[in-house]
């Protein structure tokens, strides 16, 4: 057995000792902070080094302690690797660095701090791994202005197949917690996420996860507080099963937004959301598209329980702009809502406006039990352009305008 102990002196970082203890293809990593009290530590080089050494047919263990991440990490060729993380990863607050260097993920000008790809990869946090994004710095400098190009997604799976991500906690991510793109057979279980601003500025777009151009995804047992979409299924996602997810302060279970580029169709199909809880959230089970092309079909929202949700069920073909709602050709069909129970903040249970140019087909509702939060009175279900509406199972109480808002600010 080959045993080599590699210790490097990182002189520029205040004489901290980087330690990767490699035995064959197993790397055990100790954080710089274990041997240095410098306030200027950066573990990203030794983290990348560990993945270079042991990221193929190997195992990498991060022992407990604080790992500082001051640079982007891009590792796209991992193969047959088990990664066990017992420590805390802390991303730097150097906004100017990240704005310049975050790795593009092509989707809508977004980028990421850490990109992982390859095949047969397992990241296990054993309930001990913590990814701390120092997001408050981002929320404060962003001042509610929007997505901000270069503001990095915490963790991205990119061209990855056969992946397990398990038992990891995220706090204060810089932007979205996770993103799954161009990937297949991805299982993400037992994750705990929380982005909460402690200042006057909102977190802005700290989604739990977004899937895009990916298939065969399992998401199970997550708890998410995020101020934006909890689980969001974007264009060209197929076969996604989401279960046992609890979302706070979020958009809960969402398809979209998709169809933003009229020249590129977006297809979403075979999606199940079940055993979901949503608290104090904007929406619970909903679909948002631009007036684009492609389709959303075969989606089930089942056993969704919620409390104090602004507008539980919502469909818009013209999200964000409220323009050209009736010219969208992006067809929404074969969608089920089963056992959808809880309280709505105002007097609206559902606002559903489908495009006149491509009416929704085969929407099926059963076990819909939504009451207004204060007083428990009946709510309205507004519907437009649902084909065979009378047999949908939803007792529509009136039409829904094309530009009906996602966020209501009072009774209608
Ligand atoms: C390196 O790892 C091996 C295998 O786990 C262990 O036996 C050895 O004590 C470690 N050495 C150091 C210096 O940590
Ligand atoms: C999917 O990935 C898992 C590892 O997370 C693996 O055990 C399983 O065999 C893969 N399934 C297929 C069909 O390749
Ligand atoms: C669900 O995930 C949490 C971590 O967020 C974990 O503590 C709990 O044990 C998991 N539950 C099950 C049934 O695995
Ligand atoms: C998320 O963090 C905030 C701020 O620390 C805390 O108030 C809230 O309870 C947390 N959410 C959950 C579900 O624990
Ligand atoms: C998922 O939720 C269902 C219904 O609440 C429950 O019966 C089941 O034990 C949960 N499973 C996990 C893995 O948490
Ligand atoms: C979705 O997939 C279709 C067919 O492969 C492709 O033409 C289209 O560009 C993809 N859309 C996006 C937004 O990537
Ligand atoms: C609809 O999606 C479910 C869940 O992915 C799948 O089992 C079923 O076969 C799909 N139905 C059709 C008609 O494709």
Automatic annotation (TrEMBL):
<dbReference type="GO" id="GO:0045490">
    <property type="term" value="P:pectin catabolic process"/>
</dbReference>
<dbReference type="GO" id="GO:0004650">
    <property type="term" value="F:polygalacturonase activity"/>
</dbReference>
<keyword id="KW-0378">Hydrolase</keyword>
<dbReference type="InterPro" id="IPR011050">
    <property type="entry name" value="Pectin_lyase_fold/virulence"/>
</dbReference>
<dbReference type="GO" id="GO:0071555">
    <property type="term" value="P:cell wall organization"/>
</dbReference>
<keyword id="KW-0961">Cell wall biogenesis/degradation</keyword>
<keyword id="KW-0326">Glycosidase</keyword>
<dbReference type="Pfam" id="PF00295">
    <property type="entry name" value="Glyco_hydro_28"/>
</dbReference>
<protein>
    <submittedName>
        <fullName>Glycoside hydrolase family 28 protein</fullName>
    </submittedName>
</protein>
<dbReference type="InterPro" id="IPR006626">
    <property type="entry name" value="PbH1"/>
</dbReference>
<dbReference type="InterPro" id="IPR012334">
    <property type="entry name" value="Pectin_lyas_fold"/>
</dbReference>
<dbReference type="GO" id="GO:0005576">
    <property type="term" value="C:extracellular region"/>
</dbReference>
<keyword id="KW-0677">Repeat</keyword>
<comment type="similarity">
    <text>Belongs to the glycosyl hydrolase 28 family.</text>
</comment>
<keyword id="KW-0964">Secreted</keyword>
<dbReference type="InterPro" id="IPR000743">
    <property type="entry name" value="Glyco_hydro_28"/>
</dbReference>
<keyword id="KW-0325">Glycoprotein</keyword>
<keyword id="KW-0732">Signal</keyword>
<feature type="signal peptide">
    <location>
        <begin position="1"/>
        <end position="18"/>
    </location>
</feature>
